[in-house]
Amino acid sequence: MNILIVDSSGPIPALKYGGTERVIWGLGKCLHELGHKVTFLVPEGFTGHFAESIQLDKTKDINDQIPQNVDLVHFNYPPRQSIKKPYIITMHGNPKPDEHIDKNTVFISKNQAERYNSNVFVHNGLYWDDYGTPNLEEPRNYFHFLGKASRRVKNVFGAAKIVLKGKGKLMVMGGERWTFRNFTRGFRYVLNPKITFLGMLDDTEKMKIMEKSKALVFPVEWHEPFGLVIIESLYAGCAIFCTTNGSLPELLSPEVGLASNDSNELAEALRTFSYDPQRCHRYAKEHFNAKKMTLEYIKLYEKVVEGKTLHTENPFYIPEKNQVKSLT
Predict the structure, then answer these.
(1) Is residue 255 in some structural domain?
(2) Are 97 and 245 found together in one domain?
(3) Using CA atoms, how far apart are residues 262 and 264, in angstroms rounded to an integer?
């Protein structure tokens, strides 16, 4: 097939932060390796050798920017116009309660799909060769948090609370220490010598931190649509301790982590868990690789190219399934 992948956000591949861009980079690579022609329609520079790229102009009708010889268009955001070619839309975020959701929408976790009355989803996968082979023999002496720490729902101070209860140290990737918001929300954590804020890191820097971490502590207080930080941490050999919101429980098995909304239970698990970096690494490679994801997308591509829709009715927001549980 001749497939056009459309994204409207950051550069591809992502340099520091950019979850969607990491996923579609791996998708494009695997489609190419499986014999498909791939073109990216994106607003910023694309540096891959395996695909052509066209610069997206957000001021023009998207249909005028789609090459005629394309068999299918894979959007990574909901387009504003009606699309003339066969298409699917991957929903990387959580649609608002009143938002229209297209019948050809693909969600990125079972939980996310169920919250919008759907059963159509493909788990994200990453192109692990780009990450290199982590050192799984390093001594592991602390825990880490990875994400946009400035977002309240990511709950970085909840992570600090759990780690300090568990008598550990926390490395925070994705957040600065000296911000006004940190002082107003978590003053006692900002000044605690057991909490280190590292700011934004590139892939190499992140891997160096995770190689020495026992586990990711990720007590989010929103419905995480997927959670790439979960699988990145697993790949680096880290266990996972998180809340039960969103997709997180479905990404784990008891051998690689624990999902709970009880901070005492999570803190106790930090102290008593049977850590096995090799097991966590294998789990990520087996369950969340880009090729596995790509093969699932190809099944959906074929269905749409045949003239079918992915849903018979439009998905919609279900209030009772979107209630968030707080960390206690």
Answers:
(1) yes
(2) no
(3) 5
Same domain? 15 vs 90: yes
Between the CA of residue 187 and those of 130, 153, 190, 193, what are the distances in Å?
Answer: 38, 17, 5, 12
In this structure, what token pair is assigned to residue 108? 């990125």
Residues 6+ apart with CB under 8 A from 113: 107, 119, 120, 121, 315
Q: List the chain pLDDT tens, one digit each, 328 residues.
A: 999 999 988 767 765 566 888 899 999 999 999 999 999 999 876 777 888 889 999 899 999 999 999 999 999 999 999 999 999 999 999 999 999 999 999 999 999 999 999 999 999 999 999 888 999 999 999 999 998 877 889 999 899 999 999 999 999 998 665 454 554 555 556 678 899 988 888 888 999 999 999 999 999 999 999 999 999 999 999 999 999 999 999 999 999 999 999 999 999 999 999 999 999 999 999 999 999 999 999 999 999 999 999 999 999 999 999 999 999 9
Interatomic CA distance for residues 115 and 129, integer angstroms: 33
pTM > 0.90: yes
Q: Which of 114, 57, 85 is nearest to 246 (CA)?
A: 114
Alpha helices in 10-152 (DSSP H): 19-33, 110-114
Q: To 5 degrees, how large is the angle CA 258–CA 264–CA 270? A: 50
100, 9, 1, 23: which is closest to 288 by C-alpha? 23
Task: Tell whether 327 is covered by a domain.
Answer: no
- Domain limits for position 240: 130-286
SS3 at position 114: helix
Task: Please give the Cα distance from 236 to 132 (Å, whole number).
Answer: 10
Characterize the bridge pairing of strands 257-259 and 239-242: parallel
On whether both 48 and 23 belong to a single domain, the answer is: yes
Classify residue 328: in a domain, yes or no.
no
